């Protein structure tokens, strides 16, 4: 049983602490012996020593093995596999000559010399590694005592005591004064001051014992394997194993089968029957199989007889044995199942690999065939790029892949302080309400701290902090080593991309990652920026003048005080860096421009304008905000009987950049006057804000500065709402709701969907005449199926139930690069992502069969990304298609009251924190007070991501672009 602490072992401290340490046999036990207050920091120190000692033990064992190989004249397997004897063919004449006979010995000597040099160098490097690790294992008394002192000082601050250190005599332990400190804590702390080497030595001993145990087990396993192989030797053949004997028998059988000495014929009793499947694809196979059964059987028998009668025609017969799919199906019994190998007919063993693959593809469902490429993850590569397999595999982990890191104690400390501040602030303003308060426009005063709350509230906070500290201690005791993760050499990926001047970026439509030459990217960007109707080159950006102008305008706008303060205090002047993402679904590839205006002069104004205009969108019925809204509205569509239905999907060409500035100002101000006429904000303010945002779209590329002359920047927060309202004004003039042929019309930004009933000529006329003001719309017309967003719409023979059926639209190029299981995302995040995706599938699929197919495909893709079946089986049962009616209901609007939060980052320590227990402990003290509603909210963990592959990609791309710009020289614009 593990020791919980020095006190639990009835040790008074001091030198007796060594007895408790000596009783430990694992690192976890050694952690628990540490006093609770000192455990988080000192456990990390001991864990580090343990890891170094483990590596040292492994290196020592490796050195012993290398030296043993040298003395025996043998080589380790990794050297033998790396340096092999070349297999070179020579003519018989040369082989018979004296020179030819000496070739084999010469090559053997060369290979042996190379292996010997390799082994000697490996031994040398391992001894150097041993020296470095041994040096790191030396006990650093100064570092240990500094860690103990730092912890003691934090303990004193927590308990309200004073930490006193004798600076003149550093070897003298510290003392505590002021608030009485428990005597037991003093004894434990003073004992740690002198027991550092004891803990240090024990950590090394535990590591070495573990390494020796692992080595013994490996040797034991190897010995057992050798004995097992020896026991399987055939009695009549003392040197050959049973395995070799069986393989020889199979080879002999195959030769006899090929020569015609024996034949394998299908059983006469077997007969063909239907396959037990409901899929349309397999029904097609049944019909093909039924039509060709008799002819195929006759053909097969004739082929076998011809081969037996004329063995000399072996090659010809082998070619004839490559059966067609119907011929193979004719040999299958009624028990045949494509997923059960034992139900395949005997003829399957004779078929070539090519024929087997052809049969497997024929028996697949459509989605199974489409997802075959997902089994080998990859990225999109430009026609001028050919990535090595290991580089492609590394990038295919997904841009969201979180890199693993050690547990972060300071992350919890920061969350504790933020929690304390939040509780105190909510208690301070418990009797004050502000209906105009908007959290995202709040400007925090860094110079202000809330005063302590009441005694009961403060006691509850302190009790909650103790629970958090205990959770952290448990975490460090349970996570002694660095978490296992996918080993990817990111430096090698970075160097390869840099050497070959390649960029890696996300793709348009979220299809995956794409790799392309920087020269191609740069040429496309410059071609975009050379469009003088959209962009103009400027020598300088008048940033100070723009800020001054904005400050004057804000005073005239008469916005609410919190919005005014937000704009005046949060406005930044970071010039947007122009970039683009590849459209890999286009042939040839093109680019979609992006102007990230998150920190520019217009950014805060854009955020405020977006907030003001959002309520207007809810009053425009044909503007949709999600796939769920489209599904719900499609269920309400009623068709005119007897008229053909057409699915029309449209795309607004270059939507953002083609919106005229002046016309857009007028339309937005008019919409504000119409929908928000009773607001205290005048329509002139809205017009002025739109004008300021659209006229000051400055950007930079490779040091050169430009201004967007027309349209909206793809990156400013108000762009979608401005574009939507602008287009809605022109759509309203079309009076689509009065056209009886238009059964449904909806638009999501630049994507349009229309259900139209009429003749082909009427459909074409409708599409030709449809325009959104000056904006052109390109239409796709279908009377069978089409896609909109992530929805596939299918026209079927179900007019009495619904206009169209829907299911998940599978993008042909999508590589399904979901977050891999090896990513450092918390388990709760992975579970949430899986359940959210299943919920999306339930909403999208109008029939249970569609959901079953999509669900099975999703399961397979997750398994290929490393997700274990145990977890998937549990999560998949938690989402049912029977819940679809409930999921399609509108969400209930909850009170605008933020929950209490523990803010942190993805960190394994948080897995040990029970937020319900933390809040329950705090409220046990808070019950003495009448809590405001703000303190009755639930407590949640709000965790942000840590370093990801996307961060690495951004850094690599930035460096590569900078180096390319320096070599290419300055841009010249006329």
Tell me the span between the first and last alpha carbons.
Answer: 81 Å
Helical content class: 40-55%
Low-confidence stretches: 1-15, 224-241, 261-320, 367-375
Please tally the β strands and state the result: 19
Report the principal-axis shape.
globular
Quickly give the structural class: alpha+beta
Radius of gyration: 36 Å
Number of helices: 34
Mean pLDDT: 79
How are the strands of the biggest sheet laid out side by side? 12-13-9-14
Q: Largest sheet, described in full?
A: 4 strands, antiparallel
Oligomer state of the chains in this structure: single chain
Estimate the strand proportion.
5-15%
Region (Disordered): 264-301
Protein name: Reverse transcriptase domain-containing protein
Pfam families: HTH_animal, RVT_1
Biased composition (Basic and acidic residues): 279-296
Can you describe what's shown?
By secondary structure, this protein is an alpha+beta fold. The protein contains 34 helices and 19 strands. The strands form 7 sheets. A 4-stranded antiparallel β-sheet has the order 12-13-9-14, with helices on one face. A 3-stranded mixed β-sheet has the order 3-5-4. β18, α33 (915-926) and β19 (939-944) form a beta-alpha-beta unit. The longest helix has 39 residues, at 98-136. The protein starts with 16 loop residues before the first helix and ends in a 6-residue tail after the last helix. Residues 1-15, 224-241, 261-320 and 367-375 have low confidence and may be disordered.
What is the element layout, followed by pairings?
Layout: H1 17-22, H2 27-33, H3 39-72, H4 77-82, H5 92-96, H6 98-136, H7 141-159, E1 161-164, E2 175-178, H8 183-194, H9 196-231, H10 242-259, H11 280-309, H12 314-320, H13 325-329, H14 353-362, H15 366-370, E3 380-381, H16 389-395, H17 409-428, H18 455-478, H19 490-499, E4 502-506, E5 513-517, H20 518-529, E6 535-538, H21 543-557, H22 561-570, E7 579-583, E8 590-594, H23 603-617, H24 627-634, E9 645-652, H25 661-675, H26 683-695, E10 698-701, E11 704-708, H27 719-733, E12 742-748, E13 751-757, H28 760-769, E14 777-782, E15 785-788, E16 791-794, E17 805-808, H29 827-844, H30 848-864, H31 869-876, H32 884-887, E18 900-905, H33 915-926, E19 939-944, H34 949-968
Parallel strand pairs: 3-5, 18-19
Antiparallel strand pairs: 1-2, 4-5, 6-11, 7-8, 9-13, 9-14, 10-11, 12-13, 15-16, 16-17
